[in-house]
Write a structure and sequence with these properties.
The structure is a single chain. Helix 3 crosses helix 4. The protein contains six helices and no strands. About 55% of the residues lie in helices and about 0% in strands. By secondary structure, the protein is an all-alpha fold.
C-alpha cells in the first residue's frame, strides 16, 4: 500500500528533513486548473469555509503519511526532526489541548489564517 498520500507532501517532508524549503518567486511550470481537478487551487471563500467546518476535517491522511515517512527515514533524521515525528506518532492518543500544544510547539501550521483557525478548532 502506498502511504505517500500526496507526492508533493512527501517531497516537502524530504526537503524539510534533509535540506531546506525556499520560495521561488517566478513560475517554473505551466499549471492548468480545471473543474474536474481532484486537488489544486481552491477558492477559500465563505462557502468553502462553511462546507469544511460542516465536514469536520480530519488529519488522518497527514498522520498516515508522516508515520510512513518516519518509518522509512527516521534513522537518517537529526534529533529535532525525529522528535517531531515521534510526537506526531502519538497523535491519536493525545487529548484536545495536547494536540494544540504539539501544533504550536512544532509550528505545524497550514497556509492562511482561516485554515489555521480550522486546524486549531478541529485538530
Amino acid at each position: 500500500q502506498n502511504q505517500a498520500i500526496m507526492h508533493d507532501w512527501w517531497i516537502s517532508l524530504t526537503a524539510s528533513a534533509f535540506g531546506h524549503i525556499a520560495t521561488v518567486n517566478q513560475p517554473t511550470i505551466l499549471y492548468r486548473q480545471h473543474g474536474a481537478n481532484d486537488t489544486g487551487a481552491k477558492n477559500y471563500g465563505w462557502r468553502h469555509i462553511i462546507n469544511r467546518f460542516a465536514s469536520r476535517p480530519r488529519l488522518d491522511k497527514y498522520m498516515i503519511q508522516a508515520n510512513a515517512f518516519y518509518a522509512h527515514f527516521g534513522d537518517q533524521m537529526n534529533t529535532q526532526h525525529r522528535e517531531i515525528f515521534e510526537d506526531l506518532s502519538h497523535w491519536d492518543d493525545l487529548g484536545f489541548w495536547a494536540k494544540r500544544r504539539l501544533i504550536i510547539k512544532h509550528q505545524l501550521w497550514k497556509n492562511g489564517f482561516i485554515r489555521n483557525i480550522g486546524l486549531m478548532v478541529f485538530a
